[in-house]
# Entry
Amino acid sequence: MNAILVTAVAILALTIMILFYIGVLKKSNQAINLKNIAIHSMDNVLNSIDAMIYVTVPETGEIIFVNDYMKKVFDYQDQDLAGKYCYQLFRKTDKLCDFCPCFQLKKAPKEMIIWDEYVMGRNIRHSDCLIDWTDGRKAHLQYAMDITELVVSKEMAEQANHAKGIFLAHMSHEIRTPLNAILGMSEIQLKKQDIDADVKEALSIIYSSGNLLLKIIDDILDFSKIEAGKLKIINQRYEVPSLISDTAQLIPIRCHDKPINFKLIVDENTLATLVGDVLRIKQILNNLLSNAFKYTEAGEVKLYVSTEPYEDDMTNLVLRVSDTGQGMTEKQVASIFDEYSRFNMLSNQGIVGTGLGMPITKRLVEMMNGEISVESIPDQGTTFTVRLPQKKCNLNVCGKDLAESLQKFEFGNLAVAQIAEVEYEKLPDAKVLVVDDLSTNLVVAKGLLLPYGLNIDTAESGYEAIEKLKAGNTYDIIFMDHMMPQLNGIEATKIIREMEYTDPIICLTANAVVGQEEMFLANGFDGFISKPIDIRKLDAVLKDFIRVQRLDEVAKSRQLKEYVKKSGKKLGNEIERCFINDSQKAKETLQDIYRKKDHLSDEDLKTFTVTVHGMKNILAIIGNFELSDLAKQLERAGKERNVSLILEKVPIFIDEMQKLIEDINEDIDNEDINKEDE
# Structure
């Protein structure tokens, strides 16, 4: 009985063990099946992608998997490539490639490496990373995509953009060149006081129309700059009342003869002083007001200005322009900021524009982190609202009196107002050279420069300008045309700079397109002025490069000459004797410094610069401007530590100084002899 019981227990235990092992076996088979399904699924996914994909063992380059697309590219269809090596199949070498991403991934296993190469006549972009493969191993996966079409498309787009740039440059030059003559000659004539009223009115219309055409060109060029990312926001302190006043000045030219009432509303709590790009804000306002007057035949245009809280040290400048004009449908409002969009072309045939004003406005607002909104009802009017974050300067507000004063603003004629903005300061001892191949442009430039009392020289080519400098002529500033036949302005300036000419050269250009300023500065120019020449920009250049530097010495020279004239010959002799004394000291100092030419110290250069600076002024006072200009060159050489130029020019300067001293001494001796004879 016991034996039977033991046997039964043994059979039961064996049965349980068999069942256990059967269960384990089933689970194992299920795991294998799941693994096979996973591998098969992964293969299917990777084989369905139209890009080259392969998976390898990172350390050896042994292939684990290659998808069908890559097999087709390398002509390995229907072959099992597992166990072979990637460098042998795809690179035809006997070892891992030196540039293989495996080496980089070993140092940074969590990174993805992206790189491009040109192979088999195609542009290929690779993406490499480490992954956990289905068998649990770390594997190197490479995804390679043919981007040849993308590269070709990019090159075509760049070529098209380059062609557009060339077109804009030519268009700008071809239109701005005649406009320079139209606006320049109109401006010169409008400055005259003795012209008839009807002639003045006609000239004002010509001038205003020319400016309108210039505005269209500038819109196109501005949009090009924005597209190229070249237009920059330049923040500076400005007065809000001045911004309003300057903008309002343009109202008469926009209004024409339309029965439109312009209403200006300024919130008395508007902050008076802000920091922002005031020029671009004016451009935004001008575009909005221009549109309002264009599309309103009769009724009212309003400009509302205020500030509202924004952040701690910031405020929102609010500009709202509304009109009672044509208005827009919802569809038109939705596309108002699209490039070259213009509506109701048949009914608006007489309205001049490019369809770029609003897109430019929106881009400018966005560049200043602001926002613009529009509300419009057909046949009732439109309202644009702009909010621009601006930095506060202080908490001073416009106040009631100033706000009311601005709202009562009286508008004058635009052409006359623009011309009257410049107060000419005489620069009688300054000399300028204007270089241009067109005689019309030379006449215009001379006409704009004449009110300053400058000594004006001209050259009709770059070659002629170079010859004038070689002949010993010196100038306080050279205005050089950009586009000239045979030798253009850039080429001429390069040659002039190689002659060690260091005085300012300003480019006059009709090519006001993207990147021009950087290009001119990189080619030896000190700045540029766009054609048509804006008298305000010309005045600023003269102020920066001549007036500030020479006004003191010119004033001293003029005052002294007047004093000598009133005091007679005696004082003239005293000045000459003082000059001889000062010149002897300066000459000795320069000779001492020249003897140390092989080891000039910083202190020597400082002493040298101060000495020639003093002689420059003294020589100008006695009227020897040629030698004064040489002293000016030496002064600049001292400041720039141009030792080679100093060593070259100092002996010449000392010799000329000695000759001048001897001549003056001879004059004084002769006068003394004449006095004894008397």
Q: What stands out?
A: The longest helix spans residues 2-47. DSSP finds 22 helices and 17 strands in the chain.
